[in-house]
Amino acid sequence: MTSPDKAQAREDLHALDYDIEDAVVVSSSAQLKAIANGTRSDILNLLSERAATVSQLADVLDTPKGTVGYHTKVLEDAGLIRVVRTNQVRAMTEKYYGRTGRTIVFAKVPKPDDPLWFVNDSLKHMASDADSAFPMFTSRFARIPEKRVAEFADRIIDLAEEFLEIPRAGDVVYGFLGGVFPTDRPAFTEDGESA
Questions:
Q1: CATH class of domain segment(s) 12-108
Q2: Which pLDDT score is estimated for 70?
Q3: Domain boundaries, the chain
Q4: What is the CA radius of gyration of the chain?
Q5: pTM score, whole prediction
Q6: Shortest CA distance to 70 belongs to which of 93, 37, 23, 46?
């Protein structure tokens, strides 16, 4: 049985104003190239909040409509966004774009020459304020079985989804960066000796 608090919490989740798949797999060169651009990344981020027209995106990005139109076309051709509805305004049809997937799953490393591009891109957009408790990071290292690493990866995805479901409010866009990764740190073998 769902408690009233839990039911209300579900109602308070951020809901997109259009239907979206849980995930879209990015594997083609065109898709990888589309995502590797800062403006297109910003467009994808904005469309995770709500559908928008080229004009609305241009206003928020403070970028010419023609430039934003070009970038939306690249994203649409790559299958990362689509027209989710239209609106007739005088003699023109406004197109509202939305993402095709809430989560973007990479089938291969987007930039083989820069395997940390995702982390570097996130850190590039990080802002800090001496009066704020954020940014906040923690780091841990453990020799654990790969099966358990996969379980943690699933939990990180769940946590990231929860982060996106929070209702939009406030004046600051916060980022969430989480991951598990192999390292070159030394380790003991099963018998306690160093590897």
A1: mainly alpha
A2: 96
A3: 12-108, 126-195
A4: 20
A5: 0.68
A6: 37
